[in-house]
Amino acid sequence: MSLASTLGAFDAWRWAGQCLVLVTVIETEGSTYTKPGHRMVVADDGHYHGMVSGGCLEGDLAEHAREVMADGESRLVTYDLRDEADEVFGLGIGCNGLLRLLLQRLEPGTHYAPYLDIAACHRSFAGGRLALVTHSDMNNIQAGATRLQTQEGTTSWGLPENLSAPIDALLAQQAPTKHEALTVAGQRCELLMSRVLPIPRLLILGAGPDAAPLVRMAAELGWRVSVADHRPAYLANPGLKTAYASTEARPGALRDQLNPDEFHAAVIMTHHLDSDRAHLAELAESRLTYIGLLGPRARRDRLLTELGPAGESLGRRLHGPVGLDLPVDSPESIALSIIAEIQQHIATLLPGLDCA
User: Phi then psi for 28, rounded to 5 degrees?
Assistant: First the structure.
């Protein structure tokens, strides 16, 4: 279950006015399926989207979620699977780790705060930073209180104003995931600081037959995939139906239709030398940090030479031939190598990706 599909389920449930429970992984030890900062959503009928254990614990977690829905009280749930001799729930899970989770109710009356804004942050280009209270001895703060920092500003739920400045100072440290504590007037609260990662955005320039498996794989991962080509017949390929958007755009005039700066990665695969050259010249002027180019090294070197200073400015942003050096013999295996390399790049571009 990708992040994008979880957000889609959340939208459907809130439009239906359902009461929900947000589950956040706040602490782990040993080998676990997910890490701190990971979230899933449970509906009032027991259905859930997102996973914290690969399906082993979610059924029991749904029971805890029902209790949270009933009384509205946030609570901590711990699963300790480190004892190999103890077959949890008779399943013999064998994850050999500890998971500590925070469950908090989301409801229409509070506009599904704070997850509605967290979801919007995931859908933004840059994402944001989140401070989540996991335990509090303070009378006016409950577990689940949250402060979200994005490029548009900072918003709080359940936090007094006097904690804004110290929490913002912690958020400014930019650590992917970190536990912190604040003490005010002898009272203490504990917080999980984490990234709210954006859904990766991929731009594919070229809608030939070999673009279809790349679109499908990226979409299956929950990425937001846009395809651009100057040939309308290519864009009509049914294999591209899982793309977020398809745009008719002429090489050299890409910015007339879309902004390359709004993507995390781009792959050029037009199979046409002049088109590739025009796209490379445009992307050289963008802020993209990953630009993939399909084709052999000799073809890449020729294009870079012809581009002159623009080619030199691409530097290490250009990945050509695009993809990890894997044995490939089909459009599907080529797509796999490309997806793997982009995933590797995004993990460095967006620290904390393993917690998404």
Answer: -140, 155
Q: Residues spanned by CATH 3.40.50.720 within the chain?
A: 201-354
Separation of alpha carbons 228 and 233, rounded Å: 12
pLDDT of residue 350: 65
Region label for 90, one of left (φ > 0), alpha (ψ between -120 and 50) or beta (otherwise): left
Q: Would you identify the CATH topology of the domain 201-354?
A: Rossmann fold (3.40.50)
Report the alpha-carbon distance of residue 30 to residue 82 in Å, rounded.
8
Segment 139-161, tens digit of pLDDT: 889 999 999 999 999 999 999 99
Query: Which residues fall within 8 angstroms of residue 353, CB to CB, at 6 or more apart?
Result: 197, 346, 347
Tokens of 290: 């990953």
Distances (CA, A) of 123 to 117, 234, 262: 10, 28, 12
Whether residue 82 contacts residue 158, with contact meaning beta carbons closer than 8 Å, is answered with no
CB 208 within 8 A of CB 190: no
Report the predicted TM-score, pTM, of the whole model to 2 decimal places.
0.90
